[in-house]
């Protein structure tokens, strides 16, 4: 056991999970991580080893979000848990329960195991999808006091899954009357350097621009944040006494797709030769969405500037996220280096 303590990170093969493992190893913790199949251990070790040597401080447990087996053994003896694992898809599923059930029930299993093991704190990776106001305003600013309204019929399966999973975690911890506390980290669109070709759906925003698979630039924009800063916020929320019982939005600045395209072209030279330059009118994207389901979920947000404030994390935990330009360019360079574009 490390002098800093032992942390269970669920979903260590994922984009955020792997950087959480790295951040903890860099700070001297012993880390256990979960994967669905132990055959992935060597691949995950190799990816993490690009940044930090795990030595003998990293171990693996096989668990599934949809099954009870293995959770108690993974959590037993841990001081903390970062529950990062959750299903993510690029396209909204036909059946919302395909996302909601594993997200909600996996959270119940993870938090239940943490409560049974008596860990000091669970940090749950939620999403700004769980802190979003009802659509309508062309511009909005959200903070942690806002919960996504599940009575709104326009809320998609992913946002429902993250909101229900986070609610489940709060209900379990609030009802336990035990020593385990909970904090949540609610990231916006996460980019930054990838460690393997197995990257998250959020990185596809940059990847599709670089590869030219998007024919033009729609009036879409997002609040971005670097994955390394998301991992840093997880560790801060894990250890700060004042973080107990708190939600923390992890977000930096808002950027339109056209802003990203201009940044890539200005900074990467020939490597950005396929990045589109022309704008796509709204009606064109809406028509294309009739045939491409990956577009259907974003067309309601055309022209919408939805901003998420991380002032609370900065004020309470001293969190300082890096500029969006750095996050996007490091993401792009890593995509190029790994042959993903």
Please give a structural write-up.
- InterPro entries: Epimerase_deHydtase (IPR001509), NAD(P)-bd_dom_sf (IPR036291), NAD(P)_dehydrat-like (IPR050425).
- Residues 7-245 form the NAD-dependent epimerase/dehydratase domain.
- GO terms for molecular function: oxidoreductase activity, acting on the CH-OH group of donors, NAD or NADP as acceptor.
- Belongs to the NAD(P)-dependent epimerase/dehydratase family. Dihydroflavonol-4-reductase subfamily.
- This protein is α/β, with parallel strands linked by helices and 341 residues long.
- The protein has one domain: Rossmann fold (3-Layer(aba) Sandwich), CATH 3.40.50.
- Helices cover 38% and strands 16% of the residues.
- It contains 12 helices and 12 strands.
- The chain has helices at residues 15-26, 41-49, 71-75, 97-117, 157-174, 204-211, 227-239, 257-268, 282-289, 293-296, 311-317, 324-337, and strands at residues 6-10, 30-35, 58-62, 80-83, 121-125, 139-142, 181-187, 189-191, 221-226, 247-250, 254-256, 305-308.
- The strands form 3 sheets. It has a 7-stranded parallel sheet, sandwiched between helices.
- Helix 1 (15-26) packs across helix 7 and helix 8 (257-268) crosses helix 12 (324-337).
- The longest helix has 21 residues, at 97-117.
- 45% of the residues are buried.
Summarize the helices and strands and which ones pair or pack.
Layout: E1 6-10, H1 15-26, E2 30-35, H2 41-49, E3 58-62, H3 71-75, E4 80-83, H4 97-117, E5 121-125, E6 139-142, H5 157-174, E7 181-187, E8 189-191, H6 204-211, E9 221-226, H7 227-239, E10 247-250, E11 254-256, H8 257-268, H9 282-289, H10 293-296, E12 305-308, H11 311-317, H12 324-337
Parallel strand pairs: 1-2, 1-4, 2-3, 4-5, 5-7, 6-12, 7-10, 8-9
Antiparallel strand pairs: 9-11
GO molecular function: oxidoreductase activity, acting on the CH-OH group of donors, NAD or NADP as acceptor
Protein name: Dihydroflavonol-4-reductase
Domain NAD-dependent epimerase/dehydratase: 7-245
């Amino acid at each position: 056991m490390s002098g800093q303590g032992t942390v269970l990170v669920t979903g260590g093969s994922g984009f955020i999970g792997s950087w959480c493992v790295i951040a903890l190893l860099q700070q001297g913790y012993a880390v256990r991580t979960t994967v669905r199949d132990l055959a992935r251990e060597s691949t995950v070790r190799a990816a993490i080893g690009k940044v930090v040597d795990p030595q003998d401080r990293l171990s693996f447990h096989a668990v599934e979000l949809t099954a009870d087996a293995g959770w108690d053994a993974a959590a037993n003896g841990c001081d903390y848990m970062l529950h990062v694992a959750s299903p993510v898809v690029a396209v909204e599923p036909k059946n919302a329960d395909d996302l909601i059930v594993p997200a909600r029930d996996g959270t119940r299993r993870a938090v239940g195991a943490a409560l049974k093991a008596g860990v000091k704190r669970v940090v749950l990776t939620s999403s700004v999808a769980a802190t979003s106001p009802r659509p309508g305003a062309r511009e909005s600013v959200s903070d942690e006091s806002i919960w996504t309204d599940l009575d709104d019929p326009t809320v998609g399966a992913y946002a429902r899954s993250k909101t229900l999973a986070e609610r489940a975690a709060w209900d379990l911890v609030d009802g336990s009357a035990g020593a385990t506390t909970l904090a949540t980290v609610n990231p916006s669109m996460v980019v930054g350097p990838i460690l393997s070709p197995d990257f998250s759906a959020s990185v596809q925003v940059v990847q599709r621009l670089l590869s030219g698979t998007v024919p033009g630039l729609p009036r879409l924009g997002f609040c971005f944040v670097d994955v390394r800063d998301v991992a840093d916020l997880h560790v801060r929320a894990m250890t700060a006494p004042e973080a107990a019982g708190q939600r923390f939005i992890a977000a930096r600045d808002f950027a339109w797709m056209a802003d990203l395209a201009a940044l890539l072209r200005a900074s990467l030279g020939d490597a950005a030769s396929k990045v589109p330059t022309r704008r796509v009118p709204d009606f064109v994207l809406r028509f294309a969405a009739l045939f491409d389901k990956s577009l259907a979920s974003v067309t309601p947000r055309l022209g919408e500037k939805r901003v998420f404030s991380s002032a609370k994390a900065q004020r309470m935990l001293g969190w300082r996220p890096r500029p969006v330009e750095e996050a996007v360019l490091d993401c792009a360079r890593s995509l190029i280096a790994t042959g993903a574009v």
